[in-house]
Amino acid sequence: MIRFEERKELKTKPAKDAELGFGRIFTDYMILADYTPEEGWHDARIVPYGPLNYNPGAMIFHYGQSTFEGLKAYYIDEHTIHLFRPEKNFERMNNSNERLCIPKIDPKEFTEYIIEALKIEKDWIPKENGKSLYIRPMIVATDECLGVHASKTYQFVCMFCPVASYYKNGIEPVKIYVEHDYKRAVKGGTGFAKTAANYAQSLRSQEEAELAGYAQVLWLDAIERKYIEEVGSMNIMFVIDDTVVTPELNGSILPGITRASALELLRDKGYKVEERKISIDELIGAAKEGRLKEVFGTGTAAVISPVGEILYEGTHYVINDGKIGPVAQDIYDTITDTQYGRIEDKYNWVRKIRI
Ligand code: COI
């Protein structure tokens, strides 16, 4: 059971879906639940969205002990919304929790809390194609303690944002460059977990990329600086000749749910797919020989985002004339058609919710 604390006055909703952007508008409510060793996860509640009440000594501020997730709710009609593979998000959150010494949550129970909140927040779900309500669950360490240990108490917080595409130009290909100086993650570290630390340490590089006119950077492995890992907010796939190649999951790459879905779709559609190590030399070699046909990212926020240009060691490699390619378009269409209920949900990926 989740209790509900109604707000006195509802917020003003954006006048047009066109003004949404990504992650700047928050709905009327959020979900909270607390954890103590004695009570476990308890007191789940839907409360007005607003500031959280932690003391400066709370461990989240000092040692970054936190995990988060990202999923979306899609408007289908007045009585129906869809979630896309929500159980996968909570499965991944529990894997991240395990790494960060955070107590696990019950995926079924927390999915039900989200569904209850969505029923209340249904008028916030954008109706336009390509727009959705982004759902951001997170868990933060709340013990007041400056000693470096795992916290004993935690809070689960889930907020909701009506969103358009992650990149400002929608499905227009983005430019990225291969990062040379900074490193993202190393095997044995937290690269596979969705935790604030991975993103905090990427910000310097992200800022430099944006200043130089690039959307994000392409990370190489932190040890040899040889193998491709992922892009700032998405996994990455390459079409080389007639094969889709993507870096294998190796402990330092985020196991993306859109990545897994895209791979399953690609295989089912008959594309040749390889999950393996791919070196930057192999990629650039293929680009020089005209064999690099497409590059695209996959992610909940990014969906399927084509890459139109890669900068590496001072040379600009333009991919598919800077346009989205047929493979990316095919996968984008099938994934979004499934999410928005326009085609049969062959894989049982969609959780249909009556509202
Ligand atoms: C997502 O795709 O949901 C993410 O969490 C990526 C990013 C916005 C950090």
Protein architecture, described:
There is one protein chain. The chain is α+β, with helices and mostly antiparallel strands. It has 8 helices and 18 strands. The strands form 2 sheets. Strands 1, 2, 3, 4, 5, 6, 7, 8 and 18 form a 9-stranded mixed β-sheet that branches. Strands 9, 10, 11, 12, 13, 14, 15, 16 and 17 form a 9-stranded mixed β-sheet that branches. Strand 12 and strand 13 (243-247) form a beta hairpin. Helix 2 (86-99) packs across helix 3.
Task: Give the helix/strand layout.
Blueprint lengths: L2 E2 L24 E8 L3 E9 L10 H5 L2 E3 L2 E7 L2 E5 L1 H14 L7 H14 L11 E10 L12 E10 L10 E5 L17 H5 L2 H9 L4 E5 L7 E4 L3 E6 L2 E5 L9 H12 L3 E5 L3 H9 L3 E8 L3 E10 L2 E4 L7 H14 L10 E5 L1
Helix pairs in contact: 2-3
The structure holds 2-OXO-4-methylpentanoic acid (COI).
What is the residue-averaged pLDDT?
A: 96
Taking the sheet with the most strands, its summary is: 9 strands, mixed
Quaternary status: single chain
Distance between the termini: 18 Å
Please work out how many helical segments DSSP would assign.
Answer: 8
Q: Give, in order, the helices and strands.
A: EEEHEEEHHEEEHHEEEEHEHEEEHE
Radius of gyration: 21 Å
What best-fitting shape do the alpha-carbon axes yield?
Answer: globular
Percent of residues in helices comes to: 10-25%
